[in-house]
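Closing statement on the NAI sub-project.
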Amino acid sequence: MAKIAFYGVQPWEQEYLERSLQKHQLTFCPEYLDEKKSLERSDTEIISVFVDSNVSKKIIDLFPSLKFIATRSTGFDHIDLETCKERGIAVSNVPSYGDNTVAEYVFALILALSRKIYIAYEQVREEGDFSYDALQGFDLLGKTMGVIGTGRIGKYTARIAKGFGMRVLAYDIMPDRKFARKIGVTYVSLEELLKESDIVSIHVPYAKETHHLIDKNKMALMKKGAYLINTSRGAVVDTQALVVALKSGQLSGAGLDVLEEEDAIKDEVEFLLNKKVTEHDLRNVIANHILVDIPNVIITPHTAFNTKEALMRILDTTVANINSYLKRKPQNCVN
Ligand code: NAI
């Protein structure tokens, strides 16, 4: 019988996990993992978290018996893998639960922007105004979509874009030529993609190499009036540069499901009390607040994954990851 602690789970998820992992001693916390909560779990062998838990060295050190971390997400940049390696802690993720889910959301953001759906909704609801003068949008048919990162989600995004009749350009450090031929996608350099695309959608994981991949210089290369969609990780885009690009008209709009310092926006009091906050962090928080107020910017709270079907797939894979680990045949390990 293993001691397993789940963080950030809702009541329906708890019920499902209790049914699926009956033989084990389970504890549940509805909120994300932080230093205070981890203290109660000092003899826990397995923890399961989502991206809102920052599993830093400090947190890991509070779990002396920890052997396995099952993150209920694809991304794992919220976990200190170096420390896990030193401590011999295995980490698994859910590699594929929402390729279509996130890609569909990309188009929810794109269509909301291209057809001004959010403005139309507010106008009718708040003002009872049924005129369409301020609602003129643009077609996707014939436009160029740039997909940065053609892994699982990027590929699905490219497929949907083709369905809209868009020309699709792609950039990836490991291009999949067979996929490109099959779907009718053209791989180009990042610079060419940025110059040519009317809409750029980012699907690379966050890592040292992708930190501010889209910075001031890259934004200057983008087609004037283009739109930027980011559902990957906030820090892949330089937020301060994005504010400037949007304010100057270099970019016409942005759909952002992820933000740099998005945790700070969620809990500003905690951010304020954190002594390690740098000037850069503070500037990003200010930039985020400016972004929220810029017209043609849609910001959503990291919810692209959030469908009933995707959440079920996440739970199923997490249970399978835990069972495989306990049978000494770990699957979906990222370290
Ligand atoms: P994936 O691992 O299948 O694909 C990532 C692709 O990026 C790969 O083809 C890889 O070669 C490419 N890549 C890596 N570094 C690169 C670089 N420096 N330049 C160009 N290409 C690079 O990942 P998947 O499943 O498509 O997910 C992508 C990201 O989406 C995840 O890492 C995660 O951060 C984010 N995500 C966001 C969600 C949300 O709710 N907003 C939900 C799920 C994932």
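Residues 308-326 form the longest helix (19 residues). With this model delivered, the sub-project is considered complete and its resources will be redirected to Aim 3.
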